[in-house]
Design brief:
Elements (H helix, E strand, L loop, with lengths): L10 H6 L4 E5 L3 H9 L4 E5 L14 H13 L3 E6 L8 H14 L3 E4 L2 H10 L5 E3 L8 H9 L2 E5 L6 H9 L4 E8 L11 H6 L17 E3 L7 E3 L14 E3 L4 H6 L4 E4 L6 H20 L8 H9 L5 E2 L22 E12 L2 E6 L3 E2 L3 E5 L6 E4 L2 E3 L5 E2 L1 E2 L4 E5 L9 E5 L2
Parallel strand pairs: 1-2, 1-11, 2-3, 3-4, 4-5, 5-6, 6-7, 7-11, 10-12
Antiparallel strand pairs: 7-10, 8-9, 13-14, 13-22, 14-21, 15-20, 16-17, 16-22, 18-19, 18-21
Helix pairs in contact: 2-10, 4-5
Length: about 425
């Protein structure tokens, strides 16, 4: 019962005895490599259809097969998202798709629609089923209901407080997962109709146009054409725009709640975001398990999360105040660096081959996002093209060799500091 001392055999205590999973978003194969490089325990990805992020690149069946093998070779789990609320004409295609997933063998399929759950239970009984946050599970009796239908894990509704989540964990035996970082939908558990009405693109079929992120103004009925802005800050008017979730300062409370998995949002975001978020939460989780009583938030974690584009961080509904803003974080600022390249391979001591993503100049002062520890400052001493010619600069889309002052690893990211 809630409020009573927990015994060693209780569900919450047994769940605490297992190290919590870090679950990362993967929109394509490159993001998969980056998520694994920076320490994800598991990733979630989708096929070209039937998920709520149809515009994130995603994977063909062949690509998914390669992705699952690659991840499993690295001892990383793969969960495939199939969480749309489907319509009648899609039923046959979904059934065929689920059978293909059964042949590929991911570690779980993430579902929201009861009809898809019923089909999956029948056609791929060997694959564990996870329930999406889209199902808006808000109480322990709902968890028990879904458990009876074979669900092995539930991504709990984002509207719940940490106190409510802890009670759900204590009253159930299946795994409970929660988002800890990234964008939050302004609508209840992401079940929004704005996109359907305004652009005829259904968010519940994976085609959201994100109208809650647009700028709005007020027009008085008798004065058409006169727009009265609604000011929020200097960046514009975003009256429907929720802040981003960030729980890095509350890792002990999150882990001690008994959650099984911490999930990062962002399948549509770039590799720079994936790298920073995964790296920071990986280090925080590991530090907690190394020394729970001495855990302390590191300044470089805050600095790193401030560098990626965000809408002002808050703790969502975890502490029943979605407007709470940490004084440690910058509110709605542009990142303090530009992502300029990804290391592909080493080409000698203090020399690496890179894919160039933004213009690079010889002499640029850069920082390298390594797997562990704070990002490292360095300087580009030389740029050599594929013909062996020395360059003073290079353009996006090229592949070059650069000389630095230190050694780095493939998949480390290079960023130029803004002046």
């Amino acid at each position: 019962m809630a409020g009573q001392p927990e015994n060693r055999n209780s569900p919450v205590m047994s769940k605490r005895n297992r190290k919590i999973e870090l679950l990362a978003p993967v929109g394509n194969f490159e993001k998969l490599e980056i998520a694994i490089h920076y320490g994800a325990d598991a990733v979630y990805l989708a096929g070209k259809e039937f998920s709520l992020r149809n515009f994130s690149g995603n994977f063909t069946i062949d690509e998914m097969r390669k992705a699952v093998k690659f991840a499993h070779d690295q001892r990383v789990k793969v969960y495939v998202v199939c969480n749309i609320y489907s319509r009648n004409p899609e039923q046959k295609a979904i059934g065929e798709y689920l059978k293909e997933l059964g042949d590929i063998g991911p570690d779980a399929v993430i579902i929201a629609d009861p009809g898809i759950l019923m089909e999956a239970s029948k056609s791929i009984p060997q694959i564990p089923l996870h329930l999406s946050t889209q199902a808006n599970t808000t109480n322990y009796k709902s968890v028990l209901f879904w458990e009876k239908f074979g669900i092995k894990r539930i991504n709990i509704a984002r509207e719940l407080s940490l106190k409510e989540i802890k009670e759900i964990v204590s009253r159930s035996s299946i795994e409970i997962e929660a988002f800890v970082h990234g964008s939050m939908c302004i609508s209840y558990s992401g079940r929004c109709l704005l996109s359907s009405f305004m652009t005829n693109r259904s968010s519940n079929l994976g085609e959201c146009s994100h109208p809650c992120r647009w700028k709005y103004a007020v027009v008085e009925a008798k004065r058409p054409g006169e727009y009265f802005p609604i000011e929020e800050n200097n960046s514009g008017t975003y009256i429907l725009n929720s802040r981003d979730l960030c729980m890095i300062e509350h890792i002990p409370e999150i882990i001690e709640s008994g959650l099984s998995s911490l999930k990062i949002e962002g399948r549509m975001k770039g590799i720079n975001y994936v790298a920073s978020a995964v790296k920071v939460y990986r280090e925080a989780i590991d530090l907690y398990y190394e020394n729970p009583d001495g855990f302390k938030v590191q300044k470089n974690w805050i600095d790193e999360l401030n560098k990626i584009s965000h809408r002002g961080y808050c703790t969502g509904f975890y502490f029943a105040d979605p407007k709470q803003i940490s004084p440690n974080f910058i509110d709605y600022k542009n990142p303090g660096q530009v992502f300029i390249g990804k290391i592909i391979e080493t080409s000698g001591r203090q020399s690496v081959n890179i894919d160039v993503r933004n213009k690079i100049f010889k002499g640029d002062v850069v920082e390298i996002l390594t797997k562990k520890g704070p990002s490292r400052k360095d300087k580009i001493k030389q740029i050599i093209d594929q013909n062996g010619e020395s360059l003073s600069f290079t353009q996006p889309g090229s592949r070059v060799s650069i000389s630095l002052n230190n050694d780095y690893l493939p998949n480390d990211l290079i960023r130029r500091l803004r002046v």
